[in-house]
Amino acid sequence: MTVEHGRIKGWNLPPEGRVLDGQGGTVAPALIELHAHLREPGQTEKEDLHSGLAAAAAGGYGTVVSMPNTSPVVDEPATVRALTEKALTLGTARLRPAAALTRGQRGEALAELAALKGAGAAMFTDDGRTNEDARVLRLGLEYAGSLGMVVSVHAEDASLRADGVMNEGPVSEALGLPGNPAAAEAARVARDLEILAGLHAQGRPARLHIQHLSTARALDLVRAAKARGLSVTCEVCPHHLTLTDEALRSFDAIYKVAPPLRTQADADHLLAGLLDGSVDCLATDHAPHTRAEKERDLLDAPSGIAYIELAFPLMWTRFGETLGLDRLLHLMTAAPARVMGWPEPSLDVGAPADLVVLDLETARTVNPAEFRSKAKFTPWAGETLRGWPLLTVVDGQVAYQRE
Ligand code: DOR
């Protein structure tokens, strides 16, 4: 492949300029991440733009949507601009910051959505918080929809979730830990879908994206809403497919995440949703915290699992046979682009030169000490995975190359 001015110039042209060796790997469009916590501004002891975007590039991602639950919250156009401009200087993955739907993510007054869009915000979300005020969410969906923008939601009913630190069920009961019931997610998804349906009935062009769906029941609700023709999409995270609440028997807060790890039946249902298309795309919810924070006990530790560097290898190793390479790549490239209304990534002549070269064969052991992310720990440490990126190119520039 030859690249010129950041675009694919041709496939069989004589090489000129800098020549990169793909080492026999499989070439695909660079992966797209719709959900990562990069922690800048203000929480850079956990992660920052450079470490987070370098980690993303090492994971094969060319584009990352960052979450706005930072300190301060990303609810000002100037912050969106500053993050975007800084990311451009880093030579890693491309950043598309999400902005808060409400001021300070407090769920009360809408942020200045039109100005945030003008500054380059990719979508609006109060992720990490749960949009308790239904009227505010409705207004946000209506206004964002009129701007052609997606609102993505962290769908958990806070009163039902209460102080639950893990999935509510036999395991939480056996451990004596406060549980977070599946109904907390399903009830919130049902509410949000009804709000969306009401807007559609009035001819409003609202677009709702449900983040990190974790329960079978909530997926059934989304499936039914799609059958009704609602403009709803959803993502599922690899950790909800590969881990269950059984992991909490270790009492290790590395497994604490919101929404929580559920049951094997939920994970199986989500996987079926990836196969039948009712789940739109994969997203990691890469949520780094410091080691000291995650070493606290389960009640006090913050929620979040960080693993953007190994999401593709994890999915390929565990589900490559079930999903097949084409479907898995679709779920991590074209599918997230479609959720956002972005042009579909391709390797055609003239397309942006955003690509990843994947080694689908060689097994390597996960060694968190090698992570670019500041969170140098992960539930999959020591596991043997295949599917590691060899090279990630963004706009024709090398964003990652395995040494
Ligand atoms: O586990 C989570 N961690 N879920 C979220 O929604 C927020 C995230 C974070 O910011 O750490």
Automatic annotation (TrEMBL):
Segments forming domain Dihydroorotase catalytic: 27-194
One Pfam family of this chain: DHOase
Broad EC category: hydrolase
Family (UniProt): Belongs to the metallo-dependent hydrolases superfamily. DHOase family. Class I DHOase subfamily.
HAMAP family: PyrC_classI_B
NCBIfam families: PRK09357.2-2, pyrC_multi
Protein name: Dihydroorotase
